[in-house]
Amino acid sequence: QEFNKRPTKAVPRSLSRSISQSSADSFTSVGSESSDEELSPLDRLQSTSKGLSDFCIKNIKKADFGRKEIEIAQQEMPALMILRKKAGGEKPLAGAKVVGCTHITAQMAVLIETLAALGAQCRWAACNIFSTQNAVAAALAEGGISVFAWKGESEDDFWWCIDRCVAADSWQPDLILDDGGDLTHWIYKKYPNVFKKIRGIVEESVTGIYRLYQLSKANKLCVPAMNVNDSVTKQKFDNLYCCKESILDGLKRTTDIMFGGKQVVVCGYGEVGKGCCAALKGLGAIIYVTEVDPICALQACMNGLRVITLTEIIRHADIIISCTGNKSVITREHFDRMKSGCIVCNMGHSNTEIDLASLRTLELKWQHVRPHVDHILWPDGKRVVLLAEGRLLNLSCSTVPSFVLSVTATTQALALIELYNAPQGRYKQDIYLLPKKMDEYVASLHLPMFDAHLTELTDEQAVYLGINRHGPFKPNYYR
């Protein structure tokens, strides 16, 4: 849906778009708010210490606290800090205008400020209504970044924030950094002329890449796009290791559950599913996997997991986690057959994986019990525990590891630099993968944190393998 005017507090919120009180709460320090902050950010007139008012956040007074969070994240994001030192003098993004729609966390703030240090002007919105860390958004605004985001936006607010990023007076973006495709979709729908100046799109999520390929098939992709999601440094690190550590954190903070002996169903055995399964299996959970891809299914089998359909196992499941990137994976039919106390959550980018619309009925009661935790009650007394209203569990309910996000963020920065500085004609109106040499460069920037020492090929060995002794060491199609 598209929203063409600034929403006000008088706009009715339908049941299907209702946001629970959890939208204003968080177990993390960066998301906590005091009771005097009840006014909507849309109704608060704010400005920074330098007079900037081109932003819309929860509370600019939290900037100092947010700055400390960003500084902590910087310590675990070495590659971006190295990139600042190496390219800071050259300013490879000098004059670039970057509009972004991502999770606004301390880790992403390090990327945004790195882009600014490299010469870019940035305007930013959030790609998820629950994942924004309000203090971090305040620190970005105080630092001169026009940011429009706060934790607990309504869908009206969400689209308004994106619109404010794009429709700024006397400002037209050169580059798009998207996470989920919502920003790109909005520009295509409402401001198609903006693409006349856009040099390229960088997209990092499965959902966003699907949407880009749909545009490409319809011959509507009018600018080059860089598929960061399928780069090795994104797939094998962010998707796998980030989810491996944060799935447990999100579940523990919201439910205090013990995993040993619990029957857990993981829907999807891509890199996200693999990370979730590895973490839960390590704590003694009994894991079942649902999968449509026979290759992924075979991997699950050979890792000692039972591959089964959701319908077969639904009555016995204690926890169900969706991570497919698809829609309607967990439906009302599944919910009706779940046992009382079953926990349902989503680790995919979009909340479309869980069919929530079918649960917004008069016969079912919703009971908000703690931040990001809702109990859905059936007439017979059965209750199902829903986390984060079906949105991304780890970024909504917990935090994510800074180090592994450093890998992805550096990849995104290099993709933007490549698109901005590429000679005319190098990239057509198509979707590209990051060159393997850049993938390897990103990885190499993180090795000093482990005091790792690479072996160097001899000339004879390089000739034998048919590669350059300095890389790339894998072909561009390697995944």
Would you write up a description of this structure?
The structure is a single chain. With 479 residues, the protein is of the alpha/beta class. The chain has 2 domains: 13-234 and 401-432, Adenosylhomocysteinase-like (Rossmann fold); 243-397, Rossmann fold, CATH 3.40.50. It is built from 16 helices and 15 strands. It has helices at residues 63-75, 78-87, 106-117, 134-142, 155-166, 182-190, 206-217, 232-255, 271-282, 294-302, 310-313, 332-337, 393-397, 402-421, 436-446, 459-465; strands at residues 97-102, 121-126, 146-148, 175-178, 200-203, 225-227, 263-267, 286-290, 306-307, 319-322, 343-346, 365-370, 373-377, 383-387, 431-433. The longest helix has 24 residues, at 232-255. The two termini are 36 Å apart.
Concise description?
With 479 residues, the protein is α/β, with parallel strands linked by helices. The chain has helices at residues 63-75, 78-87, 106-117, 134-142, 155-166, 182-190, 206-217, 232-255, 271-282, 294-302, 310-313, 332-337, 393-397, 402-421, 436-446, 459-465, and strands spanning 97-102, 121-126, 146-148, 175-178, 200-203, 225-227, 263-267, 286-290, 306-307, 319-322, 343-346, 365-370, 373-377, 383-387, 431-433. It folds into two domains: 13-234 and 401-432, Adenosylhomocysteinase-like (Rossmann fold); 243-397, 3-Layer(aba) Sandwich (Rossmann fold).
